[in-house]
Design a protein that fits this description.
This protein has 317 residues and is an alpha/beta fold. The chain is built from 15 helices and nine strands. It is globular and about 65 Å long.
């Protein structure tokens, strides 16, 4: 059991990451790939990965060997994206890499030629990039949309009941008692953020919550999103067929409220294109647009929310 002890300052500084962390997803996807029994939602992913992977590729085996030192593989910089995380891996001092490897005890004979010496960190970064391209990148749209759905859920918890409601919403993997968050974990330990707050990071691939071993690093809790939020590739309720893929994506991404530029970034199109689509969706009664100072915010109407979630009332509009 992991027990995270909160002060008032920790509650004030607790946040939810806007996206999944790319390097955490590599580590957790590699862990999930080794499961003999997979939930149905992961069947297509497992089959696709196994087709892409060469049986002789040492990268998955290396990831398995290094999994116990996940602090090394998941630098804080990866919160800013894959390239930032890989740059931090390359900048790892060779002596730190050697020390982390030494903590693992006897290693397979093929590991030292790969990671030993001054080029070890660069080789490790190349291996992680390769694994990201195989395990995560082809599934990136599914991960992004699923995490967006989870973020909408967390935003509602936060608006309805503040940070305590946000933490209580992490059930069934964690339980909030008013000052301590008890998290399911194979290791018994206590974590004291000491006023630094906690960064909650949603993960598509995680089976259970995870955190860093070093208590002096910025406190992070990576948690599995709900199975109800995991998308497998088909738009909810057949929206792609009804609205087209771009308008369907705009509706899904607007569930938490978003500006035109943010919607464009999430959907992967231009702000001008998003403006055209939001105009059509607004005219259909699915989207509302409001102004907050100089910022325009798009959010779903009741009908839009019902359509996205598949709960359209029988009486229609």
């Amino acid at each position: 059991m992991l027990r995270i002890h909160f002060t008032i300052d920790d509650l004030v500084r607790t946040t939810v990451a806007p996206t999944a962390d790319p390097l955490w997803e590599v580590v957790l996807a590699g862990d999930r790939l080794r499961d003999h029994v997979q939930p149905r939602v992961f069947h297509d992913w497992v089959n696709a990965v196994r087709k892409r992977l060469d049986r002789r590729d040492p990268a998955p085996r290396l990831l398995h060997v290094l999994a116990p030192v996940s602090d090394l593989l998941t630098p804080a910089e990866s919160a800013d994206g894959l390239e930032a995380g890989l740059a931090a891996l390359r900048a790892t001092p060779p002596h730190r890499l050697a020390a982390e490897l030494g903590r693992l005890g006897p290693l397979p004979a093929w590991v030292d030629p790969l990671l030993g010496g001054p080029r070890g960190p660069a080789v490790l970064a190349d291996v992680v990039r390769h694994l990201h391209s195989v395990l995560v990148e082809p599934h990136a749209e599914v991960v992004r949309e699923s995490v967006n759905a989870d973020r909408a859920r967390r935003a509602r918890d936060l608006v309805d009941a503040g940070v305590p409601g946000l933490l209580a919403g992490l059930r069934p993997h964690a339980r909030w008692d008013g000052s301590v968050l008890e998290v399911d974990s194979p290791h018994d330990r206590d974590l004291h953020p000491r006023g630094r707050g906690l960064r909650l990071v949603p993960s598509y691939f995680a089976r259970r919550p995870g955190t860093l071993a070093d208590p002096d690093l910025p406190p992070v809790l990576v948690y599995p999103i709900s199975d109800a939020d995991r998308w497998t590739g088909a738009a909810p309720g057949g929206l792609d067929e009804l609205l087209g893929p771009t308008r369907s994506a705009v509706l899904e991404c607007a569930r938490t409220g978003a500006g035109t530029t943010e919607l464009a970034r999430r959907v992967g199109t231009s702000p001008a294109s998003v403006s055209r689509h939001t105009g059509v969706l607004r005219g259909a009664g699915l989207l509302r647009t409001t102004r907050h100072g100089t910022r325009t915010v798009h959010s779903l109407t009741t009908l839009g929310e019902a359509l996205v979630t598949g709960r359209v009332p029988a009486s229609g509009r």
